[in-house]
Fold Single-stranded DNA-binding protein.
Amino acid sequence: MARGIFTFDGNIGQAPEIRFQPGNERSEDQPRPLLKLTVKYDRLVKSNHPDRLYDDKGGFWVNVDYWKKNAEEVAKLLKKGMRVRVEGELRIDTWEDKNNPGQMQSGMALTAESITIVPSRIESIGMKSSQAASSQSAPIEHYSNAMMGID
């Protein structure tokens, strides 16, 4: 059976949440981190109107589940409103409506293979130093300056 991959850009709708699921055979009975977030897939199309760049042609919210081992570290980087690119397997989930018992709701959900921060709304980026990297390579500023022809 073929597996379809869906890739989209969108904004995170609420603060990402990390949960720990019970261990299983694959995780050698160790609790597994699960990062849950919602991302708004927006269909923006270049506008013909002079007062706006894009028209919103509709979109939808996608519930994203990220099961990778680095889910805790990724959760620390992601913030509400941040623009991200998400890639993974898309599905439709159904659940009972909390406000109307007996009524079912459905929505788009995605098991993410990757989550990438899109830098359009980033104010700053920090990186932690690595002893091995700092003792064996030149500082990042050196590479940045060399790439820009400064030195």
User: Anything to note?
Assistant: Strands lie at 6-12, 17-21, 32-46, 54-66, 83-96, 104-117.
